[in-house]
Design brief:
single chain, globular, 4 helices
Amino acid sequence: MGNKNYRHELEFLLIKEFVPSGYQITQKVTLDPTSESAKYEGLNFHLNGRSIVYRKGKVTSDRPGAFLAVWQRHSEDLNNNKPIPLTSDDLDYLFIQVESHSNISEGLEHSTKYGMFIFPVSLLVEKGILASVKSKGKTGFRVFPPWSEDRGGVGTKLFSESGKKTQRWQIPFFVDIDENGLINPCELKKLLQI
């Protein structure tokens, strides 16, 4: 989903993989109203009446995993209105599409891997990502797909113990998207219980 047609690409994935698994698109896919969310291909939609926030994780060359921003503004006045974390009232699920880091520049060519994290709102509250009475929430965080690894030998290029701990709670909420764009429907139904 790395081009300007990311809304259409997500719609295609939903129609191809989610609808045959019994899910209905009950509110069309729209661009996230926060203009800065376009950097993460921010989209919103509903499946079976449940509110879904979608982001694409950005791979950074100096750190394992992928980063994404999840926040809102109460107005579009960029000077007076700082970003605030989402709350449990803003969504039911957070979908994060990821792809593997390309090592071609390092001379280690490999095929790109794709997947998606499907986090329920209860987990996002528990982990302090959404604002709640227990946490101020986060405006961005990092996800670590199964293929996350060190990106060198020094500094932030290392896959830290903290990152590996985060990966352990995230992996149960991850589904592979194979080279044909297919998702295992049984895995999807385990994660998306609506």
